[in-house]
Every structure is written in structure tokens, then in C-alpha cells.
Amino acid sequence: MGRSEQKELREETEQRLLELLIEEKIEEFREEFLVLHSYDQAKFYAELDENQRLQLYRFLSPSEVAYIFETLEVPEEDYQQLLAEMHPSFAADMLSHMYADDAVDVLNELDKEQAASYLTIMDDEAAQEIKELLHYEEYTAGSIMTTEFISIQANQTVRSAMRILKREALEAETIYYVYVIDDEKKLVGVVSLRDLIVSDDETMISDIMYDRVVSASVAQDQEEVAQTMRDYNFLALPVVDFQNHLLGIITVDDVIDVIDEEASDDYSKLAAISDVDAVDKGPFNAARKRLPWLIILLFLGMLTASLIGRFEETLNKVAILAVFIPLIAGMAGNTGTQALAVAIRGLATGEVGNESKWKLIAREAGTGLITGGTCGILVTGVVYIWHGDVFLGLLVGASIFATLTVATLAGSLVPLIMHRLNIDPAVASGPFITTINDIISILIYFGLATLFMSYLQ
Amino acid sequence: MGRSEQKELREETEQRLLELLIEEKIEEFREEFLVLHSYDQAKFYAELDENQRLQLYRFLSPSEVAYIFETLEVPEEDYQQLLAEMHPSFAADMLSHMYADDAVDVLNELDKEQAASYLTIMDDEAAQEIKELLHYEEYTAGSIMTTEFISIQANQTVRSAMRILKREALEAETIYYVYVIDDEKKLVGVVSLRDLIVSDDETMISDIMYDRVVSASVAQDQEEVAQTMRDYNFLALPVVDFQNHLLGIITVDDVIDVIDEEASDDYSKLAAISDVDAVDKGPFNAARKRLPWLIILLFLGMLTASLIGRFEETLNKVAILAVFIPLIAGMAGNTGTQALAVAIRGLATGEVGNESKWKLIAREAGTGLITGGTCGILVTGVVYIWHGDVFLGLLVGASIFATLTVATLAGSLVPLIMHRLNIDPAVASGPFITTINDIISILIYFGLATLFMSYLQ
């Protein structure tokens, strides 16, 4: 079955399921729907209208709907509506059947009262697990971990570990790592299912467990956790408190989402949008997300304009100067954006630390001198040939040289300073650094022009 | 053990290992080194100098070095040197012990002759596997898959499947999914280890296998594969040819690398750098990567300059016009970059397809009108208050309105057109779209100014 056939089959299935749903053929619907992967179920669900969804809730059990919600990806603001449609006890029941970390993600989108009321009517054990997770701050290891892991003791045999594993296999989010804890619930080792499978039944866990466990602390930044799991190729990572008590685990699927989110977050910020808005939202929604940035940049642009205004006298005498303003400002913006992107990625991946900060600055200064020198010489030549004025050529060339050097340096300094001040350096977007560099370039250009005015007339 | 203690311990270990290596204490070194995770081994290895590495090759077997190389991340150009240092038969032996997909990654960095000579002296089975993988084009599913998977037949029992699994557990890259094939080696189902564990020994595989297997075709783009695995939360995905023969599997760790690479690739392009250069490379290296872009942008900037030159007469009469050039051009660039980022992410995630293309364009046109209108009114007011000239205010305001509308539209049209022409839309970087929009904005601004000249003097 090729790719396109797979797609066709999926579309046919969706069409048939919709008909069965509308015609209220519950038996046939369940038979066909429940064999689908949760991702396909969630895709089907996301396309239903309210009446169809209400019908679906009558066809499925709370735990079956929970399975859909674990994979569902809809805009955050829609969850409130989706849960309000359900009977409250149905919704609470559904939440208690979800993996605790996924349930927390849903509850975080609701207003506090609504969330609290679900927790009240939910069964106690599930509510307890969820409440514990709700405490953790967003973007920390605690906020993406789940408490449904399998733990054993070091003095067990492989046989007894496998028995526990079989019993808990359907509840646990992953069974591919089993964590070894001591009497105080402190993490002392890890065994992979692969190790269990290839070992004899009578082997002691203490003999095959790996005791140099890499773990995350519960308050650690989720991006750091993702980096660790990527480096070590782990399918799951244990999360511990400061006394090394095992609190939960983070699974690789959550980490992929983190990597994806952080990357598109950095990307959006480079382009000065709050977040990449969903394509299916209307223009008002898009404008609302972009206008704050644009208005800030507008006022920074006004500052640039007023700066040029100071040089009106110079401009009145040599109007040709105006011709090169966008060229010089533009080049400053371009080189600044390049340096910015390198610095932000370096900070995000941890490649740029405290020691290598000065190295980066020195490197960028060097790069600025080289690119500035090359572009400066090029421009001098072109302007001279074009206007036949060697002084004009030298002025524009020298401005490009000075501007590119300073702008490259600024592009790396600004994010480093922000990082130092504990501001997310990615907030220094491309347009922001471009505007800063506009100002720098205009000062250099008109400064030089005013200084050497006598040669230009 | 907290995070900082973990780090301290790691540094201590590295220091001790280095001493043992230099003092040629082979027994103690092996004892301590071989218990480390391959990522930590690779980190240690990457910091050695040539003499120390040569020493290491005498301490470790080829298969032990293979384990390091599976995780090693050094700049691509370094592999040639690292392999050349080893005895050729040691290197070939090491390559044959690596997972085939990782060995292919290393061989792809060598020149063809060097790679071919290793394949000749390597053992036949490994060479055969690697040669097959070497055929696949970069960035396809084939290029990142491995052939070390476990397959069984549908008419086996769980007991016999578990026996195969135990036998192959140490060779296979993942044992957490087992693929079911028919007599012609066509893929017919998949069973997770979780399902095997919870089933009775005598159960038939055909009864518990999932037969709606999601697979990737061998020539499919790796980014699409990553998206599928992310959507379905798979730990591995089977790769088939057009007749559905099972060729290999892609594991989640490779997919994380793909997601990471593609994200930083898009990011770099938005900032107009060929790729985010490693921070530890010198300024010449950085300048070499950035200059091509800067020079292209320089000539586009010249075009803008010559365009303004056409309006020199207008400028001579009303020098104040020059003051607002960077403001208007800058705003056009900002709004264009925003629209560009949304379009590129939409295309990359597949959210923007053929049907939704027109919707995006209409949406961006609407967004441009709203942001342009808002900023235009703001600017008119500010310029009027500042210069006390209502016509100047209206001119700048109207230019901002028209420019933002057109620039927003251009920001989404350019990547869509490139996508249509089968050019990677991410090549349309922020600086590129900014320069295009510079030109558009200057035409609008000076066009309007020339038209309404009589009101301005």
C-alpha cells in the first residue's frame, strides 16, 4: 500500500465514519472507529461540528474519548468549549482516564473554576495525581512529566520485575524503561526492557541495572531536558526532586513537541510575531498579534526619522546623500540579523556559555571587519563608476565599512546582554535589531558626510 | 544526586580517565570508560588530541569505538581526519560494527575513494547492508533508515516471536516494535513489544497485530516522515518500496535530529545565513558563509538607491521627504518579514496546501489593510503634530497605509510563488523580502510625493 493509497483509504474511512455517525449506526461506527490510531481519531474529531460531537459522546465511553484527547491538537481557546459541551461527569470521567500529564495540559486551558469543579467530581486517585502536576510551573520538567511510570526495587529478580511490568503495562506511559528505587523512593538505577528481555529470569535487578542514571530535576527548563534526551537518545528521562526522589518521567513524544515548539517560537520571534498564527484564523486575529510589534517599530522608526531631520541642512546642500540612505541602513539591518541569529541559536543550544561569550564577540567583530571591508570596497567602486565622484564613492564605502562592523557587533551584543539580564534573547527580533542598526548607520553616514562636507560640493 | 552534582561527577570522571589514558593504565581505563553512556564517551573522545586518540584506539576494540562513533557529533569535515588516523582495517572493522545508518552517515563525509576502500576490506555482510543504504538520496526516508529491524510472520505465536526477539535484541536498533511480513517480505502488520508482553504465549501474532500499518515510502522527504512520527507518537516507522516490501525502519532518535536540523535550517534562511555557523569557527569561516548573501543584497540595495536617484528632482525641491525614507522602507520590511514567516511555517508544516493558498492570500491582504490602516492613521497624527504640516502628514500616512498593505501581501506571495516553482520557499529570507519591500515602498512614497508635489511646497 503506497502513500497515496494510504491517504485515500484514510479519507474514505473518514467519509464512511461520518455517515455512520449521522445515521446513528452505533455498532458499525464503533467497530470501525475504535481500530483507528488515536491520531486519526483525533483528526476525525477535530472536523466535526457541535451536533456531531454530541452524537459522538453518546457513542463512546469517557475512556474512549480520553484516548482522542491525548492526541488532539486544537487551538488552546477551544478546549473550554469542547469540555463545556460534555456532561460534567462525562468530562471529569474522561479527564481521569487520560494520562495525567495530558489531562493537566487540558485543565490548564480552562478557567480556574471550571478546572476545580472537574477535579471535585473526578475519582480521588486521578484528581490527586493531576493536582500534584498542576503545581509545577509551565516550561519546567515538572510541567511535562507524567507520574505513570513503572518502578521496582534493586533486590527483585528479572522474573518478578517482568510480572510487575505485565500488570502495569496498560497503565504506564512507557514500559521500555523501568526505574529502580530504594526504600525511601530515591532513584538508584534504571533497567531497559531490552535488558530485562535478554536476561535470565533469576538474575537480580541490582546486577543488570545501570546505576549512573541521568535525570532531570523537577524545576529544570524543558528545553534543557529536551537537549539531554536528544544527546543521549533516551526514550524517557526520570524526573527527581532535590533529594533525588523519583517524581515522574518525561517521554520522548513530549520532548519532540517541546523541540518543535521552541524552534517555532524562536523563528516567530526572529520575524517579530508573537507566535506563528494558525493559517485558518482571520485577518483580525493576525493583525492583533502583529500590530503591537509594528507599533513599537513604528515609533523606533520615527526616532530614526527625527535623527535624519537633524541633518536636514546637510541634506539640503547635497540631496544626493538621500539616495544611499536605504542602502546603508538596509545593509546594517541585514548583517545585524545574521549575527543575531547566530547568537540566539548559540545561546539556545547552550553552545554559547559564559566562557565562550567573549570568543563570540571577538569572532563577530572580526567577521564584521571582513564583510564590511569587502562590501565597502565594492560599493566605493560601483558608486565611483556610477556617479563619477570619487569622494562620494569613498564616503558611501567608508560608511558601509564602519556600519557593517558596528552592526555585526551589535547583532551579537544585544542578545548577549539580554541573556545576561535574564530576558529571553529571542525577543530581540530581526526587525528590532534592524531598527537599532538603522539608527547606528544613519549616525555614521551623516556624521561622516557632515565632517567631509567640503569635499562633496 | 542533583544536576550540579551530576555535572561535577562527570567532569571528575573525565579528568581521571584522561590521566589513566596518558599513564597507559589500560585495565583501569577500560573499567571506568566502558560503563559510560555512549554520549559521555563521545564527549570525552571529542576533546582528545591526536596522540591521545591514537592511544585510545590501542585501548579499545573496533566495536567499542563503533559505539562512540554512533553518538559522536563533530563537524562533518573532521571525519576524514579521524578515520585516516586509524589503521585502515581497524576503521573498516569499526564501520562494520556500527548501526548501518550511522555508518552511512560517516561514509558520506569521506571522499569516494576512501569510502570505497573501507567497503572493500570490510566484512561482506556489513558492506552489503551499507552499500544498499548508500544508494538513497540525502534527505529521503531511505537515507535515514536502518536495516537492523526485527521481522516475524503472522502465523507465529507470541512465544516464538519472543524467542526471535531475545536472539536479535542486541543487534536490532529497536526491539520495541516488531514488524510482520508475508512470504514475499511485504509488510502486513506491526506488533509492539508492549502487546507481546501482555499477551499469552500461545496467542497467534495475526490475532494481536495491527494491520493498518502507517509506513513511509523510501523516497519520501525526511521532513514529512518526521511529521508523521510526531503526529502518531511512534518510536519507529517502517519504510517500504512502492510494492510495500519492508526495507528498513526509522527510529525516533533520528527523527529528533531531523526536526532539529530542519528547524535551524529554516531559521538560518530567515536570517539570510547559509547555515548557523558553529560558534567555535573563526571569523573568516563566518564571513565566507555570510558574504554571498550580503553581496546579493548589496546589489539589490544599489537598485533601490538608483530608484531614489530617479526622484532626485523631487528630493531637491522637498528635502524633508528624505527624512521618512527609512521609516517607510523599514515598516515595509517588518510587515513583510512577519507575513513571510507565517507563510513559510505554514508551508513547512503542510498547513498551507493548494486549497488553502488562496485563503492565506486573502487573509494576508486583510491583515495588511488593518495593520496599514492603523499605522497610517497613527503616523499621520504624529507627523502633523511634529512638523505642523497636514499635507506632509497625510502623504507619509497614506504611504505607510499603501506600503504595509502591499508589503504584507508580497511577504506571503513570494514564498507561495517559490513553492509553486518548486524552489524551497525558505530561501526567501527576511533580508531578501525586506529589500524587495524597500523597492516597493520607495516607489509608492515618491510616486505619491511627485503626484501631490504642489501641496507640499
Indicate the proportion of strand residues of chain A: 5-15%
Mean pLDDT rating of chain A: 86
Distance between the termini of chain A: 76 Å
What is the tally of helical segments of chain A? Answer: 23
Task: Work out the count of structural domains of chain A.
Answer: 3
Describe the structure.
- The structure is a homodimer of 457-residue chains.
- By secondary structure, chain A is mainly alpha-helical.
- Chain A folds into 3 domains: 3-135, Alpha Horseshoe (MgtE N-terminal fold); 151-251, CBS-domain; 283-456, Orthogonal Bundle (Tetracycline Repressor, domain 2).
- In chain A, 67% of the residues lie in helices and 6% in strands.
- The first copy, chain A, has 23 helices and 6 strands.
- In chain A, strands 1-2-3 form a 3-stranded mixed sheet. The first copy, chain A, has a 3-stranded mixed sheet with strand order 4-5-6.
- In chain A, helix 15 links the parallel strand 4 (216-217) and strand 5.
- The longest helix of chain A is centred in the last third of the chain and has 31 residues, at 357-387.
- Chain A is elongated.
- The mean pLDDT of chain A is 86.
- Chains A and B meet through helix 12, helix 13, strand 4, helix 15 and helix 16 of A and helix 12, helix 13, strand 4, helix 15 and helix 16 of B.
